[in-house]
Design goal:
Blueprint: E1 3-7, E2 10-13, E3 18-25, E4 32-39, E5 46-51, E6 58-60, E7 68-73, E8 78-83, E9 92-100, E10 116-117, E11 121-126
Length: 127
Amino acid sequence: QVQLVESGGGLVQAGGSLRLSCAASGRTFSNSAMGWFRQAPGKEREFVAAISRGDFRTDYADSAKGRFTMSRDNVKNTVDLQMNSLKPEDTAVYYCAAKPSPYRSRLYMAEYQYDYWGQGTQVTVSS
């Protein structure tokens, strides 16, 4: 079992930065691949970034590449999403997700693959 709590959302002007954090409780965090997803009003939830559990490989949605960086700390049981050069279209509720995995290098980019979800944190980017 993994419980996830996101923080760090807020209101920022276009071009600004935010750092989201996800704190995980439970003994399976270090054995879990992690992901960030987001859902804008009236839209489906979409993949943003993923990180593997063992070698910290990362992958990003095209919309996030070059602007967002995902990282994790398996001692502190946290995963972060550094978001730079924010745009109004980045406005959404951002969710952290965990996927217990036997594979240290595996990345997961589909919503249905994840087993645990946080409650989300709102990010609003003004133009």
